[in-house]
Amino acid sequence: MTGSAQAAREAARRHFVGRDRWHWAEALPWAAAVGAFVVFPDYMALGTQIVIAIIFALSLDLILGYAGIVTLGHAAYFGAGAYAAGMLSAHLGWHEPITGLLFAGFVTGLLGLASGLILLRYHGLTLIMLTLAVAIMLQEWANVQERWTGGFDGLLGITIEPLFGLFEYDLWGHTYYWYSLAVLFPCFLVARRIVHSPFGLSLVGIRENTRRMHAVGTPVFARLVAVYTISAAMAGIGGGLFAQSNAFVTLDVLSFSRSGAILIILILGGTGRLYGAFIGAVAYMLLEDELAKIDPVLWEFGVGLALVLAVMFFRNGVLGAAERLARAVGIVRS
Amino acid sequence: MQQALAAAVSIVFDGFAYAMLLFMISVGLSVTMGLMGFANLAHGAFAMVGGYVTVTLMNAAGVPFLLALVLAFFIVAVASVPFERVLYRPLYKAGELDQVLLSIGLVFMAIGAVTYVYGPQPPGIAIPGFLKGQVDLGFKSFPTYRVFVIAMGLATVLSLWYGLERTIVGARIRAAVDNRRMAQSVGIDVDRLFMLTFALGSGLAAFGGGLAVEILGLSPRFAFLYLVQFLIVVAVGGLGSVRGAFVAAVILGVVDTAGKYTWPEGGAFFIYAVTVAVLLVRPAGLFGRA
Q1: Cβ–Cβ gap B102/A308 under 8 Å
Q2: Please, are residues B210 and B69 in contact by the beta-carbon 8 Å criterion?
Q3: Max intra-chain CA distance, chain B
Q4: Which of A129, A307, A315 sits opposite B235 (nearest CB)?
Q5: How many Cβ contacts (< 8 angstroms) between chains A and B?
Q6: Chain B residue with minimal CA distance to A297?
Q7: Which of A170, A266, B162, B214 lies at a C-alpha separation of 20 to 30 Å from A117?
Q8: CA of B176, closest CA in chain A: separation in Å?
Q9: Per-residue pLDDT in tens (0 to 9) along chain B, 290 residues
């Protein structure tokens, strides 16, 4: 073997072995989360909702960004988690928050496994239609099961005990902000571990070329079901957090517009790079909060325009564009 | 018994009128999706725009209803061509995700633009006198307007059938849906054909949108409110199949109307359950090709 080939192989090896090494910039989102608390302590209710959106978008990134599963019904799992956590408190009298979230994650994980075993056998437009129809079906079903879900009026009577029996919930949502960040962090670690693992790489392989992955012997269907289940559980945890922090769940958690919004958040942030969920959720929710109040028409038009432009020119969202810019000015080598 | 029969007849009748609207709006989507496989979620926006064009022509320019419908057809058909050429064409070979996102973006923009011009309130139109009231069909009298909608729907079905089965352009479209590459190989200009189909489909959606104002109501959110219904018609019927779109629209229209009469809270659930069941068993739809 010639020296240069050996060097190239060594570089490739180092790239693969070190691909999950932490970069200093990865501390920035967390620093920003703490900074936001210091600078805008009065906006922590919004902050909590942003963190919840990040968890939800992260769960979508696992299946859409990495495994390439296009879904228009991911709110099914978010909503199921919200109802699971809400009903646990409202009907079953279990008010401890952390086990409540775990329960929500467990229930939606099972739901993801069961639906994934059926849905992931389909592809393309059929899969898109099926995810869409299943989510709306779930929403209509929740509407019919009024006795349990509160139907159109929403699920009331959710009370959550103080965190660890110590931290009371305050009027400004400070406790919930820290609580939701403390939930986001392990979710993020799990997602990060997954995408850098051989399992995560096989997902990218499936996204890029399913046939070849079949040919090299990857159990494609099993891998897809596995990541779908994990993603559903994570979305459910986000939904559970949503139910706990609002102490109220309406049918809206299962709606098509929520599935669409989280897709838009992820696309505008950038798919298949984890941090796209962060950027997308922060930008979208802040802009929505500011702009939708002043001029909802302009907001809606703007979201549409941003989507069209993203598809035509910025396939990889804000983060993709930033990476391209960084490469162009030579901060990062490609 | 007499009463139940009368109720059943009105359910089927109302359901059929609704089905005809669904068919007219969705059939263009079915054919264009069958031709190019483009997941166009913005198709309903053309119907919405058609509704607003009809309303504007009537209220601002004093154009009579029927003429306004015909004009809406042509205006939207012509206006849709630049969209196809500039925005859709680059994405024919792209994945479904890009197509879905682009067309959702277009729906948002259409909603924003229409709300900006017309406001969020649903506009009203004054349908002409001869379409008001009831018409006696011998055994029972029915609302004239719905009879008119059904007649228009059936006329559309007939002309589409004639156009597709008995003309050379129709033969070319069928050939291209069946096998695009082969059609191209024998010299059919699929690109041009698609532009034509897209324009006709959008125009038909606009025509249906104008007819729907009186029955379904019109608002900037129309394109989202009925989006899932249009998609169900296309997916359940099978891409590219006019017959499939018709059958699916009739099933959806009648079942949906029956559900709303007999089980108001759960009727919608039934629709989606049926849709999921059909797609699970026949992923390409009732009349589609796998």
Answers
A1: yes
A2: yes
A3: 61
A4: A129
A5: 123
A6: B112
A7: A266
A8: 19
A9: 778 888 888 889 999 999 999 999 999 888 888 887 788 889 999 999 999 999 999 988 889 999 999 999 999 999 999 999 998 888 888 888 899 999 999 999 999 999 999 988 888 888 888 888 888 777 778 889 999 999 999 999 999 989 988 999 989 988 888 888 899 999 999 888 889 999 999 999 999 999 999 888 898 888 888 888 899 999 999 888 889 999 999 999 998 898 888 887 777 888 888 889 988 998 888 887 75
Burial of B214 (0-12, 13-18, 19+ CB in 10 A): buried
| A34, amino acid identity | V
DSSP H helix total and E strand total for chain A: 15, 0
Q: For chain B, list residues whose CB is within 8 angstroms of any CB belonging to chain A.
A: 33, 37, 39, 87, 90-91, 95-98, 100-102, 104-113, 115-116, 224, 228, 231-232, 235, 239, 265-266, 268-269, 272-273, 275-276, 279-280, 283-284
What one-letter code names the amino acid at B5? L
CATH 1.10.1330 fits B2-126+140-281, yes or no: no
Mapping DSSP onto H, E and C, the string for A54-65 reads HHHHHHHHHHHH
Chain A CA closest to residue B270: A137
Contact B115 A72 (CB under 8 A): no
Give Cβ neighbours of residue B209 (< 8 Å, ≥ 6 apart).
Answer: B25, B46, B47, B48, B49, B50, B51, B54, B72, B218, B222
Start-to-end CA distance of chain B, whole Å, equals: 44
Count how many residues are written for chain A: 334
State the DSSP H helix or E strand holding residue B135, giving kind and residue range, or none if neither: strand B134-136
Rg of chain A on CA atoms, in Å: 21
Q: What is the pTM of this model?
A: 0.90
CA distance A18 to A15: 5
